[in-house]
Task: inverse folding
């Protein structure tokens, strides 16, 4: 099964 | 001092219903631009970004930037006490630990004040880069809600694929599989009924249906929804909030290991 990605790996802390 | 008067108070009620199941606590940020919020769900899979521009309020006073931590469940309880036709005013003092929601009936014969305790929330603000999306689909929001609801009875994951044929929503589960294909259709009586598919590059991504279903709580806010997809990025599911702003949901894709 595909693994759920994490939003913080796409968007960095401002 | 902050004082925001929203004649169409039902918009704020609907906004809360659209985010309270996804996010428990969040900071509402108030600046000269508007009333905004950015928050992730507790497992950091989805992010919601809300903007209600200052021009959309009948009266907008925000003396200095203010961040107000609120429990969205409690805020929703309070806003549910406002009538759908009520005018809602949000009031707070700089440095205060409460926010007041004032509800005025359209005939001004009932005025209610609800004061809610604020909370300190240590939230991380993420930078969302501007992106060129491979494909952008605009469709009736009720159709998107129906598709997500139907597919979640079959499977847990939706694969959204955009090709020159159209946009395909697919799922698979223990009982079988389902595929729903929508083709571009702009020959409709009402523009909000159109299906518009803008494909720069074909794209196919997998997402958790549980989150997609949660996003569709925003359906009462807008007749249309826009889904922006790129193979490198979280999907953006956007609902406009009348003429004054938007709710954007970002959802990280499921990735093959």
Result:
């Amino acid at each position: 099964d595909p693994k759920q990605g994490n939003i913080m790996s796409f968007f960095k802390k401002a | 001092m902050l004082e925001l008067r929203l004649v169409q108070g039902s918009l704020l009620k609907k906004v809360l219903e659209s985010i309270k199941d996804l996010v428990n606590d969040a900071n509402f940020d108030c600046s000269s631009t508007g009333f905004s919020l950015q928050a992730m769900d507790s497992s950091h899979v989805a992010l919601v970004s809300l903007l209600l521009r200052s021009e959309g309020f009948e009266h907008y006073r925000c003396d200095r930037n203010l961040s107000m931590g609120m429990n969205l469940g409690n805020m929703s309880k309070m806003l549910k006490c406002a009538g759908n036709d009520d005018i809602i005013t949000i009031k707070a003092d700089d440095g205060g630990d409460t926010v007041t929601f004032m509800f005025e009936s359209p005939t001004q014969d009932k005025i209610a004040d609800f004061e809610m305790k604020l909370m300190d929330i240590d939230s991380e603000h993420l930078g969302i880069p501007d992106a060129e999306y491979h494909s952008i689909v605009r469709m009736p929001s009720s159709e998107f809600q129906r598709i997500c609801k139907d597919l979640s009875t079959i499977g847990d994951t939706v694969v959204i694929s955009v090709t020159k044929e159209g946009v395909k929503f697919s799922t698979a589960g223990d009982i079988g599989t389902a595929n729903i294909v929508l083709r571009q259709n702009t020959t409709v009586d009402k523009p909000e009924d159109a299906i518009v598919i803008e494909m720069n590059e074909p794209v196919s991504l997998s997402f958790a249906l549980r989150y997609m279903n949660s996003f569709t709580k925003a359906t009462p806010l807008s007749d249309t929804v826009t889904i922006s997809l790129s193979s490198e990025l979280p999907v953006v599911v956007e609902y406009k909030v009348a003429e004054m702003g938007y709710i954007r949901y970002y959802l990280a894709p499921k990735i093959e290991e």
Observations:
- Chain B touches chain A through 24 residues (CB under 8 Å).
- Helices of chain B lie at 10-19, 72-79, 141-152, 209-215.
